[in-house]
Structures are given as structure tokens and as C-alpha cells.
Amino acid sequence: MKALVTCGAGFIGSHLCEALVAQGDQVFVLDDLSTGRFENIEHIKGLTCVIDSTLNQEIVRDLVREVEVVYHLAATVGVQLVVNEPIRTIVNNIRGTETVLEETCRYRRNLLITSTSEVYGKGMRKVFHEGDDAVIGPTTRTRWCYAASKAIDEFLALAYWYEKRHPVIIVRLFNTVGPRQTGRYGMVIPRFVSQALRNDPLTVYGDGKQTRCFAYVGDVVPALKGLMARPDLSGEVFNIGTTESVTMEDLARRVIERTGSASGISYVPYDQVYGPGYEDMRHRAPSLDKIKNAIGYQPQTSLNQILDAVIQDIRRRMSSVPQEPVC
């Protein structure tokens, strides 16, 4: 099969490309390398990589015409980037997805769109189901433009399904982590691990009592492929994640323990990191009943196993950075 992966040089996209090539697919990558890295995919033999954006409709059209399925992962990601660059966030997320929808509908290509757990907003549930209401914060706080723009992506995709019967599936990812992810834009596990390996204090935002569930990329990628293989599920939305929950301060302690670090923990108010008025959710965990019933999805990788994989990856990357000569 011929597949297009937008943001294929990104963290999740590169793992997906590996898996598709391994099963014999011919893979095309579209990535502007704004957050992705070419080194994530340069080891994958046989890829066709186009360095451009989903905002370029002619490029998207040319690529979609060549393939049979499209995995649309391209989006602005990372809390820091969202807060600092709201225009880029909104335009990339909405216009880019609109372009992909137009061209995949034109050629009737099966499409999978990755959305986010952020669309649930600041709802008070501890476990979120796909049909739950969303509670989005005010437009005066840029933090919410990511959630709102991804929700618009979902509305638009489902509108294409309802009106044109365009075969599209939406997945809401809950904190996917693993090797190749960086802490550059606020991703917590690689940030903690990098701090621990330098013996720097691990910076926990807020009081550290907030909880999250971290899913391993090696569990998530097979789920993406499994859903793509089921066109009968078009027009549906699925959570993908894990149900193992952890507080941020416990996560920091685990990272220190598993790295053997001499680091301590430093608690930093949200306002100092993201500016005044930043809002965070206390708890966020997915219900996985729907995707389990659909394709048998069940995460296999524990949080400790995830941490060990990320630690090994970041150790390798840190050791490969050229050191200044010592006189």
C-alpha cells in the first residue's frame, strides 16, 4: 500500500513511518521540519520525503493523488509553542487540516486524523469518554486555542463524513511518549529525564498533584494502523492512551530513581512558566472501552518501561553531542 504521513519526521510520525515501511508499504512524508527532525527518519530506507507544509495545497494534492491512505499528524504541538505562537497554532491546525480534508475527499482516500485529549478542555471528569461534553476556557487565554482549533478539526472532519461520506477516522491521543520525543516545547517526560541526567533540579509545575496517563508510542502506532485498516469505522472518534495514572511529583521521583540522579525537585508556579492566568487540568485519563471493542486495543507497556526507554534514548543523544575540547 502507498501511504502519506503528514509530520512524518516528528516523534510519533517517524515511528509510524518505521512500522509502515516494515510491513512493506511505500511511504511518503510531508513535513516542514518546524518541530520534526530529519534525523528521526534518515535511517528508514525507501521513504520519499517532501519538505513543505500542509498549508501548500498544490503539494498536498500531488502527494494525496499518489497514495491510497493518509495519516494526518501535522499540527502545532507543545504547550510552550501554543502559548507563545497562537496564530501559528490556529492556522496550522485548522487550515492545514482543511487542506488535507479537501484533497483526500477529492481523491476518495482513506484518512486518519490525530486529535488530542485537549479537546475535553477543563472538564472535571477523571475518565473521559468520546461522547463527553467539552468545557473550553475563555478566548482571552491563548492556552485554549490549541484545544479549540483541534475541536474545529474534528467538527470539519465529521462534517465531511456526514455530507460527503468521506472515509475519515479521528483519534484523540492522550500523552503519547517514547524515544525521539524532545522536551523542547514542554513535553514533561523528556524534560524531566534531561534534567535528571544533568543532575539539575526537576521542575514540577504547580503543586505536582495533577495526574496524567502516558501511552507508549510503540502501543499507539499499531492502534493507528489497526483503525486505518477498518474503513467501516469511518465517522467515528476514538481515545488512544493508557489507564495507568501518575501525579507529576511522583513521575519526577520515578525519573530520579531510574536515572540514579542526584537531582532534587523544584516546584514552579504556572505563571512563571506560561504567563499569568494559565489554567491546567487536575486529572485526565481516557476511557478505552470503545477502541478496545473496535480493534482489541490494549496498552502493553508500563510507565516504568516507558521511562527506561526514554532514559536510554536521551542518554544516547546526550553522549553523541560533540564536547568542547579540553586544553
Characterize the structure shown.
This protein is of the alpha/beta class and 327 residues long. It has a domain at 2-177 and 215-243 and 286-300: Rossmann fold, CATH 3.40.50.720. The chain is 40% helix and 17% strand. It has helices at 11-22, 57-66, 79-84, 86-106, 145-164, 188-197, 217-228, 248-259, 270-274, 289-295, 303-319, and strands at residues 2-6, 26-30, 48-50, 69-72, 110-116, 127-128, 168-173, 176-177, 202-205, 211-213, 215-216, 237-240, 245-247, 265-268, 285-286. The strands form five sheets. A seven-stranded parallel sheet has the order 3-2-1-4-5-7-12, sandwiched between helices. Strands 6-15 form a two-stranded parallel ribbon. It has a two-stranded parallel sheet with strand order 8-11. Strand 1, helix 1 (11-22) and strand 2 (26-30) form a beta-alpha-beta unit.
Keywords:
11 helices; alpha/beta; 327 residues; disordered C terminus; two-stranded parallel ribbon
What's the CATH architecture of the domain at 2-177 and 215-243 and 286-300? Answer: 3-Layer(aba) Sandwich
Percent of residues in beta strands?
Answer: 15-25%
Helix and strand string, N-terminal first?
EHEEHEHHEEHEEHEEEHEEHEHEHH
> What is the third-level CATH name, the topology of the domain at 2-177 and 215-243 and 286-300?
Rossmann fold
Structural class: alpha/beta
Relevant CATH superfamily of the domain at 2-177 and 215-243 and 286-300: NAD(P)-binding Rossmann-like Domain
Give the biggest sheet: 7 strands, parallel
**Which strands sit side by side, in order, in the main sheet?**
3-2-1-4-5-7-12
**Count of helical regions:** 11
Instruction: Assign the CATH class of the domain at 2-177 and 215-243 and 286-300.
Output: Alpha Beta
Q: What percent of residues adopt helix (DSSP H or I)?
A: 40-55%
Radius of gyration: 19 Å
Shape: globular
